[in-house]
Write a sequence for this structure.
């Protein structure tokens, strides 16, 4: 039984496990890079609170670098998949070299511009005189390593499109383990502090980039690398940017939200409030990461069955992914409520920072049990081909509702208002997404009946043709 038949016939539960577990592992490993850095940095003796605050100030820059990684990586990967599907292997091969060149050129530009204006950017992004030194120590090293960052991210994505998802995941796991070991060694054994965390990240990304390059240069890849493909092709660049611009724009929007939030946090809660948000967002991202992996796994199942007009399986697949997402988020929410000190304490043990973080976490996470509707619902709408509607729903939660909430609520509730902004956006976006989902899923019963009638009609016509042929042959 081939893959496509399996998507249309195998039990939804088995399919979700088969497709989601590798995606969840990949997402968790990728997310650990930043989370591990934050845990080690927050526990640096004597300077942990200011160091993790400094790290929080650098997040908009980190997000901008990620945005360019997604522009090149996702744009290239999708184009390779399309070209291979069309049987245009030579064109698909050219994308590999172009991705390498784009990553190097873009990385150099970001490094130079970033290092030239690092002080001004950090002050705009929420740094104070107390936190600027830590933010600068960290981000200067990260900016120097932008080339390997972009190479690692974009090429690792293309390895999956080349038909080697296990190799892609293995490279990511090796990079992540290396980062953890180097973090502990450089920060504590060699007393390099926050700079040690940055060096560990760059070395780990460098290792990932080298292994990804070796995959293509060794000749073991399905798409063979050719030096001639390093020369930039205008058509390829345009096609990569056309597809990659959507996730690129989403990350830039996220960076803008981080800048606005950091400045509001510094105004209403001081430097430690930024450190608290860094901790809170890390905890919530950790809980959301399996949901993003679940979305990746459910997408081909929903998309295939929607295209095949198997609407009952579309509905079943979505509801199963929603149930799994809600279960994970509810368990996470219970843990947050029962063990807030233990969870926050992983990132920092400073009493004042812990107090701010725990209070903020309790408010910030209050909508976690229902937010699965918004996150999986947006993915569902995208999976059935309604990309524009999905984009609006996604922006609704993270930008359209969140930015006004961050700017308005603190005027009435001060620091508490900033913690309230995300659950406010979550509640409204979940309500709107829920209404759209209800209407979409409610229409499937009628669509299924129409599809079955159409199928029965075609079968009947085939039977009549066969009977007519039999009759003619007898005569």
């Amino acid at each position: 039984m081939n893959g496509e038949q399996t998507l249309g016939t195998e039990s939804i539960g088995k399919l979700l496990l088969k497709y989601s577990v590798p995606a969840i592992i990949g997402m968790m490993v990728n997310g650990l890079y930043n989370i591990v850095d934050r845990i080690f940095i927050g526990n640096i003796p004597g300077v942990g609170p200011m160091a993790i605050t400094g790290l929080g100030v650098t997040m908009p820059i980190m997000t901008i670098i990620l945005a360019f990684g997604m522009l090149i990586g996702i744009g290239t990967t999708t184009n390779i998949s399309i070209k291979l599907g069309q049987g245009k292997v030579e064109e698909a091969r050219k994308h590999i070299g172009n991705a390498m060149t784009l990553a190097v050129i873009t990385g150099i530009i970001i490094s130079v511009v970033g290092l030239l204006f690092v002080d001004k950017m950090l002050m705009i992004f929420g740094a104070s005189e107390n936190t600027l030194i830590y933010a600068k120590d960290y981000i200067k090293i990260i900016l120097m390593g932008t080339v390997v960052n972009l190479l690692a991210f974009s090429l690792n994505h293309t390895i999956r499109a080349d038909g080697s998802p296990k190799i892609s995941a293995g490279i990511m796991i090796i990079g992540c383990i290396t980062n953890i070991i180097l973090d502990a060694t450089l920060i504590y054994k060699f007393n390099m502090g926050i700079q040690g965390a940055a060096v560990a990240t760059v070395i780990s990304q460098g290792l990932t980039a080298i292994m990804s390059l070796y995959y293509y240069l060794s000749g073991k890849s399905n798409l063979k690398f050719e030096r001639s493909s390093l020369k930039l092709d205008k058509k390829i660049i345009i096609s990569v940017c056309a597809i990659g611009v959507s996730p690129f724009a989403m990350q830039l929007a996220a960076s803008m939200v981080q800048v606005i939030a950091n400045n509001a946090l510094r105004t209403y809660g001081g430097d430690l409030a930024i450190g608290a948000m860094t901790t809170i967002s890390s905890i919530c991202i950790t809980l959301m990461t399996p949901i993003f992996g679940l979305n990746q796994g459910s997408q081909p199942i929903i998309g295939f069955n929607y295209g095949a007009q198997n609407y009952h399986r579309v509905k079943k697949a979505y509801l199963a992914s929603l149930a799994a997402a809600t279960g994970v988020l509810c368990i996470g929410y219970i843990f947050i409520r029962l063990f807030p000190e233990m969870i926050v304490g992983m990132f920092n043990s400073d009493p004042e920072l812990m107090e701010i973080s725990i209070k903020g976490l309790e408010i910030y996470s209050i909508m976690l049990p229902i937010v699965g509707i918004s996150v999986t619902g947006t993915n569902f709408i995208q999976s059935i081909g309604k990309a524009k509607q999905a984009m609006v729903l996604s922006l609704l939660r993270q930008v359209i509702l969140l930015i006004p909430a961050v700017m308005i609520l603190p005027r009435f509730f001060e620091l508490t208002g900033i913690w309230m902004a995300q659950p406010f956006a979550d509640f409204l976006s979940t309500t709107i997404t829920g209404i759209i989902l209800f209407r979409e899923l409610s229409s499937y019963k009628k669509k299924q009946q129409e599809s079955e009638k159409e199928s029965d009609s075609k079968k009947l016509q085939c039977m009549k043709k066969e009977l007519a042929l039999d009759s003619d042959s007898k005569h």
DSSP finds 19 helices and no strands in the chain. Residues 73 and 157 are 6 Å apart (CA to CA). The mean pLDDT is 90. Residues 48-85 form the longest helix (38 residues).
